[in-house]
Specification:
This protein has 11 helices and 15 strands. It has 346 residues and is α/β, with parallel strands linked by helices. The strands form 2 sheets. A 10-stranded mixed beta sheet has the order 1-8-2-3-7-4-6-5-9-10, sandwiched between helices. It is globular and about 55 Å long. Bound molecules: adenosine monophosphate and magnesium ion (MG). Residues 64-65, 67, 101, 113, 116, 118-120, 143-144, 181, 184, 195, 230-232 line the site of adenosine monophosphate.
Amino acid sequence: MKTTKLQVSPETPENEKISTAVEFIKKGELVAFPTETVYGLGANAFDPQAIRKIYLAKGRPSDNPLIVHVSSLDMAQELVIESVSSYEIANRLWPGPVTLIFRKNKRIPDVVTGGMETVGIRFPAHPIALALISRSGVPIAAPSANLSGKPSPTEEKHVLEDMDGRIACIVLGGKTLFGLESTIIDMTRNRPTLLRPGPVSPERLKDLLPELVVPEFVMAKQGYKGPALSPGMKYRHYSPDVELILVEGTPEESSKKIEELVKQSERKTVVLCTEETKELYPKNFDRIVLGSRENLYIVAANLFGALRELPAQGFQLLISEAFPESGIGLAIMNRLRKAAWKILRV
Ligand code: AMP
Ligand code: MG
């Protein structure tokens, strides 16, 4: 399939280019587009045929439900049974990088939710996403625009790598701001429940939702045997193409362990570290600095790119430091633990 590529300004999306993308959505075709979290792979949420194309293009299991993106609270309200605006969290965090699970009404086809009675809704803040949804006039179902099992795309080259030739249209709008997928909260349980940590910190969520439950599986620790709560959680996500070892412990202790591992390794190995820790390693080691421990948002924004690109650069083993689990650090650790082939605690 020939893919139409549109280079669009992320601040002030050009009208004519958005019109081209809107035409594809209206014809039941797929459009990849940037959001403030990661790139999404979108289709008209009311069109079951179009939705099936998403699962095909990604190779995604059909029981893994899609998040439906809206461009207003009114559009969200048309899809669910609950009164959306009665939830403080919707009023306060939308538009933004948060997905809320509500009970769906009949307008959402079953293929969107993998047959579930609930639906994840997100009102993104990105100007391109908002323009695409509002001008299409329909909600847009969109999982991340990667092939199933690959890290979510955070840069133009990632989405081209996975989707060029597979879908009708790609809107290119630069690197995404957060670089990690949305925070997901299930509002249909007795108490609101965090299903996936994301850009909104757990501390901020607890402020808005003092009753919030943070289940153990959210930590993605090895050996967790309990229920998945969200269908997507049972799949191994964010998988880099080569082995990733995560070493958990203080920077001083883990750097010693990592040094040992690198010296033993017979493969081309790279260490994922930070400004503050890179000097803890011998100078002849391959090191990639993800950002600073003072600003974990930068680490988050660079993580998926590193997991994707380092194997392509010929590295055969990635070894990563761990990060504090506060702020966006909880989401970083959730993704790293899910991506890791092995977790070592020192
Ligand atoms: P992605 O769009 O690729 O970031 O994946 C969406 C995630 O949201 C998956 O992990 C899904 O399992 C989860 N999700 C979507 N809809 C629901 C729902 N109704 N209930 C629980 N989890 C959901
Ligand atoms: Mg995904």
